[in-house]
Amino acid sequence: MKRTIGALVAVVAAGLTTSTAAAADQPGCRVGYEVTGQWSGGFTADVAVTNLGPALDGWRLSWEWPTGQQAGTAWSATVTESPDAVVTAADVGHNAKIASAATVEFGFTGTWDHANTAPLAFSLNGVTCVHGGRQLSAAEHTAAMQPGWNLGNTLDSTGADETSWGNPRVTEALLDNLKAQGFNSIRVPVTWSAHLGPDHTIEAAYLARVEEVVRWALARDLYVMLNIHHDSWQWMSRMPTEHDQVLDRFTRIWTQLVAAFAEYGPKLTFESWNEPQFTGSTGKPQEIELNAVLNTAFHGIVRRSGGNNATRLLVLPTLHTSSEQQYLDPLAEQIRGLNDPNLIATVHYYGYWPFSVNVAGGTRFDATAQKDLTDSFDRVHTTFVARGIPVVLGEYGLLGFDRHTGTIQQGEKLKFFEQLGHYARAKKITTMLWDNGQHLGRTSFQWSDPELYAQIKSSWTTRSGTAHTDQVFLAKSSPITGRTITLNLNGTAFSGLYNGNVALTRGRDYTVSGDRLTLTATALTRLSGSRGYGTNAVLTARFSQGVPWRFHVITHDTPVLSNATGTTAAFDIPTAFRGDQLATMEAKYDDGTFAGPHDWTSFKEYDRAFTPGYPEGRTRLTPEFFAAVRDGARVTLTFHYWSGAKVTYHVTKAGETVTGTTT
């Protein structure tokens, strides 16, 4: 990462007070730091120090290098560097005196290796200089954070350290790659509960580690959002019955955090807490009020600490970080009441629940799922953004990803993320992708689903064309006929259809009429080749903008299931999928009532009640499914496949024994 020559970092102090009128009576400074020349391994820099406090007779300006640079020869100052990389520039006698509001200048040469990032903070005679210059407005700051990424399941782990949930330790290389992927901000969720000592004192080593990761991120010019995370359900949720204890612990944690991060500039934001929730309350009104109490306490702690924290942007969540109107309105009212221009609202969005987890037949990103998304973002925009309160979508994704990313069919998944990115951009909402290690490899730095990442990245700037489906099923037992697919042009224009890099011929291989793409029988016959089960060809539709859309040409026949016996702990139905793919499963008793978990719907949850095993040739029914099945009552299962095929199967539980039959 190479620093741009001439880039300027301005650092301004108003002392350790929030009162502008009192600033002249307090120590303070403004520092202008500019790299004036740079070459391989070396650079020159000019520094201007403005005294904003009482007159000084003798000065020492100190800073730390964020990316391992070293200072060399200096002029108009004596520059020294300690073994722990603290740099000190001291006056040289003739320039020792700095009157109030006066400026002294000096310069130096330096060396750098992998990066030449400006210092994150300065102190003058031991007093931290507060970042300034022209501070971005809350709206400008929030817009500059787009797009963002979550360092999930790492520092927010509830075990002994950041690796306790299976992710490796954070490295500078990860943050380098994150920046290279196009992200401008990182949310750093932190769970503090396992690292608190007597009187709720944060373990020094863990706080230092969090600080290190934050410094690494800031050194890469990433905006950072730091919070209290899983503490929300571990102990904060008990506030209805342990009001004072929770408030005291919360206050102690934030008091320590604002002190530890006081010197950091405005690219660090604080988020009050994650996904506010309570147990044992008298109802939602009390929960809304308790969330407001904690948000107000957080705001006061940060602002009273002064320094950079006097104007630092703060992020306040709705109850449950929900976008429901009943939770948006109270937060909007609270933010207006605080009368602070440097506040941001935050919500999370994981989609229309049946679609997001694939339950109740929610297999497609259909009109209902789309309306849930647009209604949510419309409410957020109307309540906050349109009234001058910026919004960060602190987490987004699909809840089915908690199991694995295959819970939602690929094409439907891509349409969801394309629409979400587009509509958030249209409503001026900054997005931060939730990534618990499933998406961007923490050591490989590769995306587990490059197609998904390409769709997400494209949505930051433009729309992409999609289609009703990405699957073209051709039954092996039937003659091949033409297939017509509805395109979702999304404001783009269709430009061509390709098999690899070979363009198919319009008119012979396909036709396009408006939003209707028809693949001819001739082309499909050629593309299917010997017609082995599974994907025979992958076609790519290209549009005037955005990423291409893929169609999988699939040869299939109706799946065949076989009789089986097993236990409630391990029951597999032998399945010859014959090229088809499982979409969902229904479960009913003989009397027509719904069997299994979620007994309000016949359609069970994918990967919780059932899961396909394509390589193994089996369909598994889970212990969770059988735990909700009546003993001795036959259950009729209807498996729905993406080709449109339906196959019935019967299971009966007798104690821990399960019998499955096709008749």
Strand order in the sheet with the most strands? 13-14-15-16-17-18-19-20
- Bin the strand percentage: 25-35%
Q: What is the β-strand count?
A: 38
Low-confidence stretches: 1-26
Class by helix and strand content? alpha+beta
For the CA atoms, what is the radius of gyration? Answer: 30 Å
The first-to-last residue Cα distance is 65 Å
Share of residues in helices: 10-25%
Described by strand count, sense and barrel closure, the largest sheet is: 8 strands, parallel, barrel
Instruction: Please count the helical segments.
Output: 13
Global morphology: globular
Q: Give the averaged pLDDT, no decimals.
A: 93
TL;DR of this structure?
Helix content is 23%, strand content 30%. The protein contains 13 helices and 38 strands.
Structure description:
This protein is of the alpha+beta class and 663 residues long. The strands form 8 sheets. An 8-stranded parallel beta barrel has the order 13-14-15-16-17-18-19-20, surrounded by 6 helices. Strands 1-2-3-10-6 form a 5-stranded antiparallel sheet, with no helix packed on it. Strands 7-8-5-11-12 form a 5-stranded antiparallel sheet, with no helix packed on it. β24 and β25 form a beta hairpin. It starts with 7 loop residues before the first strand and ends with a strand. The model is unreliable at 1-26 (pLDDT under 50).
